[in-house]
């Protein structure tokens, strides 16, 4: 068993503008750095052995701040937990996206589907859990993973059978979602907003 804590990266200017980032590499703003510190405070009561992050700069910076605050080593990179690629919709305002495409599960030229995001995220979580078990067996490790709203949303929908989050629910920057990864399965423990 591995405890996996998924943290959504801190705010960027594109988050503030309600603009779709996808794989566009946008850095944190000052509020985003505060989001990362808030997330670190939420995590401080528990013992964590490792931290991972998406390769995108907003996740990397969030993870470095959390690692520094928790006394963890430099974050390892996990490509499978990068944000959904939105194809032709990258850079669009959310309101324009919803007007043009109708919803988050719509087909967008050159974009990943939510199922593709879920599948690569599950594969990445499984690899992280296997590495954790190799390091610590029989003791369970607690691992922090900094990722993105679309990735976390796809995993929440997967583990809840599509019931959470509801359509229109926002995952706050710096939010924390705790899971258990065991025998190839993922289970949600709880979710906390920073």
UniProtKB/TrEMBL annotation:
Keyword field: Glycolysis, Isomerase
UniProt enzyme class: isomerase
This enzyme's EC code(s): 5.4.2.12
InterPro entries: His_Pase_superF_clade-1, His_PPase_superfam, PG/BPGM_mutase_AS, PGM_Phosphatase
GO terms assigned for molecular function: phosphoglycerate mutase activity
UniProt xrefs under CDD domains: HP_PGM_like
Name recorded for this polypeptide: Phosphoglycerate mutase
């Amino acid at each position: 068993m591995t405890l996996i804590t998924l943290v959504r990266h801190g705010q960027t200017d594109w988050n503030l503008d309600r603009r779709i980032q996808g794989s566009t590499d946008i850095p944190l703003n000052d509020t985003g750095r505060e989001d990362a510190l808030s997330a670190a405070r939420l995590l401080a009561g528990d013992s964590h052995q490792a931290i991972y992050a998406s390769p995108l700069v907003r996740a990397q910076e969030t993870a470095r701040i959390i690692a520094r605050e928790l006394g963890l080593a430099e974050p390892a990179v996990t490509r499978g937990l990068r944000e959904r690629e939105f194809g032709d919709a990258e850079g669009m305002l959310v309101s324009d996206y919803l007007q043009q495409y109708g919803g988050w599960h719509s087909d967008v030229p050159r974009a990943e589907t939510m199922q593709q995001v879920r599948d690569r995220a599950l594969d990445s979580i499984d690899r992280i859990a296997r590495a954790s078990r190799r390091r610590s067996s029989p003791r369970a490790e607690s691992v922090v993973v900094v990722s993105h709203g679309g990735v976390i949303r796809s995993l929440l929908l997967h583990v809840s059978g599509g019931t959470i989050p509801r359509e229109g629910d926002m995952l706050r920057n710096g939010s924390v979602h705790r899971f258990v990864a065991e025998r190839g399965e993922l289970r949600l423990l709880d979710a906390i907003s920073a």
